[in-house]
Amino acid sequence: MPRPSAAGPPPGDAGTSAPPALPTTERGRRMRARLLVAAREVFERDGFLEARVTDISAAAGVAHGSFYTYFGSKTAVFRALVAETMDDLYASMSTRGETGPPDGSPAEVAVHRIDQANRRFVAMYRQNTALMALFEQVTTFDPEVRAQRQAARERNVGRVRHSIEQLQRDGLVAADLDAEYAAHALVAMVNGAVHYWLVLDGDFEEERLVATLTRLWAQALGLPVHA
């Protein structure tokens, strides 16, 4: 897996040109999607700094010039990949829609939802491990990708805060807990642990990691956890 580097962006690919308009035809949308798939393949194989537009075009089976109909630079196509991936990743942490065990107490249902959300997040992160490693690299020198990262994280924190506030309204979590700060801390805990495990090759066993994250999350909110 390509590892993050402290190096800056390659000359001539600052990604500052205005992005082409999104395609309006079905053929155009298919071609753009094809380029995104090819770009991901090349980025994950070669790393961001070594990837070239010519390689992306070749992997997509299109002429070099066709790339620029859809993306202004390799940085632009990477930003598009980030935009596609980050919301899906963080949305997986939402507990909305989870029903929980039919015979469980409200607190047990809440813990079940937390556990299922953590499992979805781990599964999504595993599917995108190489891209997430590159994402960390590019945030060091691309302000727009860094802003995308921050915006996606803030949306996720908002979802977690909303779930905590609902638990407070239901009387399951102490009303004096600062839901905003708690959401930031819990998101950082899960994201940091999973990043360490999958990107930095931490020596974790998946089931133990997920169970531990769920237990810590639940206990931080004062929800009962049965070992």
From TrEMBL:
Coiled-coil segments: none
Domain HTH tetR-type as annotated: residue spans: 29-89
Record-linked PROSITE patterns: HTH_TETR_2
The entry's keywords: DNA-binding, Repressor, Transcription, Transcription regulation
Residue ranges flagged as DNA-binding region: 52-71
SUPFAM superfamilies from the UniProt entry: Homeodomain-like, Tetracyclin repressor-like, C-terminal domain
Family matches, as InterPro entries: BetI_C (IPR039538), Homeodomain-like_sf (IPR009057), HTH-type_TetR-like_transc_reg (IPR050109), HTH_TetR (IPR001647), Tet_transcr_reg_TetR-rel_C_sf (IPR036271)
Highest taxon of the lineage: Bacteria
Transmembrane feature ranges: none
Protein's name according to its UniProt entry: Transcriptional regulator, TetR family
Organism this protein belongs to: Geodermatophilus siccatus
